[in-house]
Known about the structure:
Elements: E1 6-11, E2 15-19, H1 22-28, E3 32-43, E4 48-52, E5 57-62, E6 68-73, E7 79-82, E8 93-98, E9 114-116, H2 118-125
Amino acid sequence: MCGxxxxxxxxxxxxxxxxxxxxxxxxxxxxxFEVSCENVTFEGESNISTIRSSDWAERGFCKKCGSxxxxxxIDSDAFQIAAGILDEQSDLRLSLQVFIDKKPPFYTLxxxxxxxxxxxxxxxxxxxx
Length: 129
């Protein structure tokens, strides 16, 4: 929002995912809309702060204005960049909703998408115990 941080990367596909988990909803005041990107680089990296939000992931935000920037799977190159901060959004389409069983009843997304429950997300992405 303030321009202190710049992010460059390549979207894996022109797809947006929405996460309805408790943490994302607290962080975004609704679903966290993200675009999975690779080859991510940052400008103004000294203005980025992170918080470890689970055993395997951290969330990044701007120290100056507080804008949500990314969700990052630690020990990987996987960054889910906040869709709202992207300069070009016209080709993006909502394709996936995760933690669908945690979505509160006061909103519904109209697009038909693939959906995953919390248990399915943990089985697919969480490190084994």
